[in-house]
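Fold this sequence, please.
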Amino acid sequence: MSKKTYFFAGGGTGGHIYPALAVAQRLKNLEAHSGIHFFSSQREIDSIILGKSGFEYTTLPVIPPQARDIVSLRFLREFYKSLRIAIKKIKSADNATIIGSGGFVSGPVVLAAKMCGRPIGFINVDIIPGKANKLMASLAKEIYVQFDQTKKHFNSDNVMATGCPLRIEFDNTDRESVIKEFDLDANKKTLLITGASSGAKNINDAIANLIDNLSGYADSWQIIHLTGRGKDEKLRNLYRDSKIKAVAIDYYDKMQNLLSLANIVIGRSGAVSVGEYINTQTPAICLPYPYHKDNHQYLNAEVMTRAGAAIIVEDNFPKPDLTTKNLWLALEPLLIDSSKIDDMKRAARELETPDAAEKIAERLIKLQ
């Protein structure tokens, strides 16, 4: 049996890397003899995630365009360098399949695969694909999406709604390890606050303004807050002076364990985050990232809110006081009434699409 090599291309954010990593893990389980290789960006988050994955990766010099709808000379130069690196790598493998997972890293690698005549699969977990993703996916033989509603955005008959591929660690969560690591109280409920892999200043600021309110629930609740790298000192000091037990950390890579412990999560609604909330059946208060032109995080969150598994609070960045007020109006009833949390948890269970990563891996093995 000839050895196959699967090249994954995506980076710049955890949302582009984690779905690819999830599929890579299943491919390794199904075809232990096959090779796995990632192409990533130069951003720190890529090396943090992939450095712990056990898979080899190549960092490409490609950068995003400097401004909306403007392609700079530097972008073209780095894109061409990245294209040459990808072509060389792909040609060095006798039996290569390429999987794009979005972001500016995918561009030169998917194009290289097309130039080399190699089969391409594409993973798009956001409910609305961006222009670049639609362009890259047009070169793919198969496209794998999280939401059925996404199919209409691609001009292809080979779009499959598989759900969001999640890392194999989500198959076996360990809430007790979090309790032990952070010296939490197993008898208290846990509020998890997160701004995803890079943190979210607006969410941090809103919570900072609510710490006195949260302290009123110190007898029954505790907090874990993922602040983002370099954004934890202020909150750590505020929590230290508050009555409620709270742990502020900049980054944590075992999200499955945090979500399995959390009774409520407050966070962004990137496609992977929504997939994780659903998989762990964690009731969510979603503050969609407000700066995207197509507002796709809001639409991701709507899938959960329509089912009754989440509440959307607008991140009103011009009026942060309004964000704080509306967040508390959404959160306080849940802190008071656990039956509301139970209802949301049951609703999330109805949305779950298990085995997405394995389904995609099985398709990629057959892709010619």
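The mean pLDDT is 93. Residues 216 and 231 are 25 Å apart (CA to CA).
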